[in-house]
Amino acid sequence: xxxxxxxxxxxxxxxxxxxxxxxxxxxxxxxxxxxxxxxxxxxxxxxxxxxxxxxxxxxxxxxxxxxxxxxxxxxxxxxxxxxxxxxxxxxxxxxxxxxxxxxxxxxxxxxxxxxxxxxxxxxxxxxxxxxxxxxxxxxxxxxxxxxxxxxxxxxxxxxxxxxxxxxxxxxxxxxxxxxxxxxxxxxxxxxxxxxxxxxxxxxxxxxxxxxxxxxxxxxxxxxxxxxxxxxxxxxxxxxxxxxxxxxxxxxxxxxxxxxxxxxxxxxxxxxxxxxxxxxxxxxxxxxxxxxxxxxxxxxxxxxxxxxxxxxxxxxxxxxxxxxxxxxxxxxxxxxxxxxxxxxxxxxxxxxxxxxxxxxxxxxxxxxxxxxxxxxxxxxxxxxxxxxxxxxxxxxxxxxxxxxxxxxxxxxxxxxxxxxxxxxxxxxxxxxxxxxxxxxxxxxxxxxxxxxxxxxxxxxxxxxxxxxxxxxxxxxxxxxxxxxxxxxxxxxxxxxxxxxxxxxxxxxxxxxxxxxxxxxxxxxxxxxxxxxxxxxxxxxxxxxxxxxxxxxxxxxxxxxxxxxxxxxxxxxxxxxxxxxxxxxxxxxxxxxxxxxxxxxxxxxxxxxxxxxxxxxxxxxxxxxxxxxxxxxxxxxxxxxxxxxxxxxxxxxxxxxxxxxxxxxxxxxxxxxxxxxxxxxxxxxxxx
Length: 686
Fold this sequence. Notes:
Blueprint: H1 26-57, H2 60-65, H3 70-95, H4 100-126, H5 131-151, H6 153-162, H7 165-175, H8 180-183, E1 194-195, E2 203-208, H9 229-236, E3 239-241, E4 244-245, H10 251-260, H11 279-284, E5 288-292, H12 313-329, H13 347-350, H14 369-372, H15 375-383, E6 391-396, H16 426-455, H17 457-460, E7 462-467, H18 482-492, E8 497-500, E9 508-510, E10 514-515, H19 519-527, E11 529-530, E12 550-555, E13 558-562, E14 588-594, H20 598-601, E15 613-618, E16 627-632, E17 635-641, E18 651-655, E19 669-674, E20 680-685
Parallel strand pairs: 2-6, 2-7, 3-9, 4-10, 5-6, 14-20
Antiparallel strand pairs: 1-11, 3-8, 7-8, 12-13, 14-15, 15-18, 16-17, 16-19, 19-20
Helix pairs in contact: 1-3, 1-4, 1-6, 1-7, 1-12, 3-4, 3-12, 4-5, 5-6, 9-16
């Protein structure tokens, strides 16, 4: 028998002073926290930092439009890269107070949620799933990923290696993205034009945005003088280049082509460091430059003062970036096009004093033109004054570009951001809103002509009014991308171009094949300035180009050939016979919900704002396609269909362009269901 001796058990060492049982302590505990921090940083980088900086990096116009400084842009990048990670890290650190098990569980939950968020983004790109089904699949994927992370070491190790990603994403944004030119511009030297024999007249340029030529035309192919009297007035005293096309459907490519005379070659920022040779440098040695740009910064500091209207600040950048993050992270496709999210500030919002007396034009019924017009336009009008030195007055105005918010009178109205622009019912609504904003733009053209005549500049100046591109309102091809170009090139490519020579009195039409690379050579020719670089365009004062086809660039360096002449305007839908009629009591016929009913309870026309867009949802008893009549104060203002269901529900939206429907104070809004026999049934509204 073997005698065995059992060693007595060793008592555990007492915890260190100040330590709490169950809480990780010492170097190993902090190493664990560091590992968790790196894993969270890697996932946040994939879920937030990379997609956000990718979109913003490809959108330098976002920073240019908001007049962001270098410091504000860098601060925004730092917030995107650091704040979400720090917030989750603090949440995890707080969970340590509940003990080691709670800390581990919280980290696992965070990993699972971040993996689910990543799965939403990946799933939206590689699968047809949307909405709740995609969300369910993403949550299952997140749970599986969290379980794998908790069970095996490999996933955690891979995440810690990937934690270098956020720094790489920031570096790519700062040094390799198109927006890098805005943040870290490299030089502003551009070639100056050479003065040629002849006079140097004042040059006034107004570049509108997203304006198809066909929107201005009547059935006879001429400018519709009834709807757009001031465009017709402009055409009556200038040369209308009727067969004129832009070169791209995206302003950051289209406008540089117009101002450099070169077709788009590379996807770079619309910035002077990327386009050093342009209209502003060509005329800048001889002309005083007064430029109001919107989503470009082509005029270098050596030629132009900083923009007159104030910057919008870091708060605006953060708020707009937050909206972008919501679109990126959502399990549904966004109806909001980031390229259509620009909204010009009014003069009042920008804090500008009224530069002009209130015009006598009775069509500005609010007597508040300076409050309604965009701030850049107010600044532009204020600068239209004669000068001893040749002067270039330049304005790129985002009108009638979406978002559509102006009635023909100049009154503003609110609209939800998620209304679709394409699909049955929606594309028709989009076109009506576009045309209403174009009628308001016509008022601004009239103000420009009035100011030029009042100051004596009209006869002396070279006046150029055009647009950078159009937009399609064909169902299934709404917009201005390649699909719209192929389906409706006449609406996207063809734009109005009016050039009034100094001293010109009579209007004429020139049907040469104008492409927008011809704009710079034409202006330089009239200004008697020689352009010291090669251009792809030719002056309209020279012989027309021999070829009849057009070049259009959905992507720089990849031209699409367009053929065909001046497009015919699409027929306008005839108004429903009920529009404008009065309606009394009708039998009940269902229910509906109208958003923003409170706006009808306290209408104040003196503010220049009206609830002119009525939208909401209908109950299941109202079939798809049913026509609804929308009445305000007993008079029908619009008849619209109930569209098929979408993520917003079974919706309708009616646009009321007649200001006379509204009155000060309380206004009554009613909905009526139109039956197959034309009978009206009243819908109860909530």
